[in-house]
Amino acid sequence: MTIIWWPGRHGFWHWMLLISLLNSASAQEPGFVSIDCGATSNSTDPTTGIHWTTDAPYISTGKNQVVDRTVKSNINEAQLQTLRYFPPGRSKHCYTLPATPNTTFLVRPTFLQGGIEPLVDSSFRLSIDSTIVEDLTWNAPDIDGVYSYEFVVATDLTSDVIIFCLLPSGGTTAFISTLELRPLAEGMYDVVYRRKYLQALVRFNIGASDSDPVIRYPDDPYDRAWYPYRGSISAAETTNEITADGLFDKPPSKVLQSAWIDPTSFWWQFTPQNSTLDKTKIFYVNLFFAEVQTLKPKDVRAFSLSLNGEMNYPNLTLGTEANVLFNKALTITRTGANFSFEILPGATLGPVLNGGEYYASIDLTLSSTDSRDVNSLEVFKSSLGLSSWAGDPCLPVPYDWVTCDMGSTPRVISIQLSNFNLTGTIPSSIEDLTALTDLWLDNNKFQGAIPDLSKLAKLKTLHLQNNLLSGGIPSTLASLTFLTELFLQNNKFSGPIPADLESKSGLNLQTSGNDKLCAPTENCPILPPDFTDDSGTTGGGGSKSGGSGAVIGGIVGGVIVAIIVIGLLVWFYCRKHRKPSPVTASSSSRPTPTGASNASARPPTGAAGVRQARAFSLHEVEVATSNYKTKIGEGGFGPVYYGRLPDGTEVAVKVNSETSNQGATEFSTEVSTLSRVHHKNLVSLLGYCEENESQILIYEFMSKGTLREHLYGREMKGKISWKQRLDVALNAAKGLEYLHNDCIPKIIHRDIKSNNILLNEKLLAKVADFGISKLAPEGDSNSTSGQTTIVRGTTGYLDPEYYAHSKLTQKSDVFSFGVVLLETISGRPPNSKDYNLVEWARRQLNSNDLDSIIDPFIKGSYDPESMWKVAELAMGCVEPYGVNRPDMTQVVRALSQAVEFEEQKSQTFSSQPWTPSSGQGRSYDDYSSNNSTGSPYPPTQGSYGATTEYEPKPLFTP
Fold first, then answer.
1. Per the database record, which ranges form the Protein kinase domain (predicted)?
2. Which of 71, 685, 711, 814 has an alpha carbon within 20 to 30 A of 199's alpha carbon?
């Protein structure tokens, strides 16, 4: 099944990709992308069911070639018979791979030189998104070698593509044979969410023999390659099914069914190559254990594990289930890592090891080109037929025709497209490249008028000579303060030259070769811009070949109609199955408050019987509150009092104060909206009163107060655990997600803050206070265009985009919720006289110093992966530009994962003195990352020893 995100930044291209791959359904896992580079037709592997496609849908540069020799390999042998190569001339060649946001992927490129000229001394680099991940060099001995690399990367909450690029070096030819993308399960190799990527160095099926095949899909559902160890070891195996469902990184059963065993001890050493240690000394290591022998009643398998001579696990007892020891940040120096396994005194069986993995853990390049420049260039490239230039325009290397200011956030400062044979008009999107200093579009075939360039305040040189541009010369060009070169010669401009331009100090203005231009003081007409197509027909209405044009038009029209029909069918199907039909509120004898909206909502299951808001008399309110005896809060709407209805229901009564400036409009909005909106994570409106100019709202009473009180209130501070905080955040996010996605019209809260997240007696969180909520406009309220409205909200939580431009979107709520997440982590308010929480947290996390922002009351009581997940989610929510923030559905998904990390502290080994295993649960543990120094531990008692020295090329080669 192909997952499609529509609408979205790349939604159209995902649709086109779906249409092109409709014939590619197979038995493979959902989300597999398998590209047979250089192939001219698709194919399906008869053994695995994996469907291989040509690379045409993913890249538009390079040339196909058939390999000039027979290739024998256990890595995609059939697909190694062709390749795609990229002659010198471009800085990068990029594959655009469809991906799912907030997901971990394995990316595997494979290379066989295959007879490309020149046969030797080819070198190029590989990059994933903005990060260079490997440098490759081919010399004469490498020509017939098959080289495969594996990288584990994660998309962020908004990325729906992965960009894989080849970056030629020194004018050499780059090439690639296959490219594979494999989605991994949630939680696997989760350090990649810490702004890391992993490069696979070693992955062994340790108990396998030399004759055993490499284990891949379908035995490994994630299609990792597990190689037989090929060491001189004693091994045992079983045919019993061994599952690894409880292990985060999920080794396949076939790896666990064989093991290296010894009656006393053995050791296994791994030594990274120096080139790897030059990039990192931090490694992600997995060691997998499972029982493969039939034990007698009195048998006990117990052993110790030492790392580099220091005891890490003195008492390990192997149970009946698969187990793992892993270290996500093991420091390894040039002395390597020596793991020593030794039987414990009194045990009857010695150590066992079934599988092992080593990954280099390397920092990602976090920056990317300014989103305004990226979006502008996407339109620019599409308009001019330059879409073959894929990937980030500046990183890791810029397009050949782009120059960038490589600051913390790169900006495009120069475009030089001279002599590119470009046609059409100059795209108006160029005006959004506001850092541009040089724009050279000369010696092309551009027609029409010069677009408005007045936003390019930093522009210094503008070269448009030798084109077919027409119309008048814009006088706004004179407003460009730094403009020093304006070359317009040999075009079709008409009318007077603007006087301000001709007299502009320091400007080199060239206008020769425009016969219909005249001096500023002369009176000559400005002719309308013209556009002439290749056939010579003015206005672009002609064609060289009417018949072929009609045929092409018919084909294109048919494809478009087919896409529209399929899209509508899918849209109606998803709409029908995703949400239940709206429930019409029952009629009431009470009138709707003046100015009420027509908001309605799709209630969740069981909501049909939800108690509807009713009108109360002022006398009933006074009785319920004992004449407003107990004040429990104060808000912008007015004071809040505790009350109890005749049936015993506790309520919170909000009374509109005389000084409130949030009166009639907010009152009508809350009553009309909340009386129709029902969700377990939204505070329910039970009633209202509008009598004698009183405006009163009656809510369910939330006995445990606000989230803010629990985080840093005087009486409750420090009394809520990290797990409870996670649950509160997740439930609040679900309530907000319901407002954004399931209400008709959709609702933007506008005042999300920790004071508006209330807790009941079970600490169930509910979002409150819709006094300034806003009904979203029809269409995509998540759009960056938003709706113009008076800025309302609370200082410290306000979306900077909303504050600056008064444009309200759902992403404004997301920003505010991100601030709440930072409060949840730190136990600090959003701002004070001395600091701003968002900026302070951003500085600390950019320095990889998570510990410094964590509330001291919860230190030592949380799962690190859970905390990192929420911290990175929070920073994603408070991105300055809304387009870069997740939506609330993605927020809910990420928080759910954080909760799973906190709950699934699965156990592996007993750390107590060993006793015969009864198969009970174990606890996960990490190796100490400080035990990386000292000499390797010698195999003094072991009957077997093995050393693995990582050789980067070929990495996974038979």
1. 626-899
2. 71
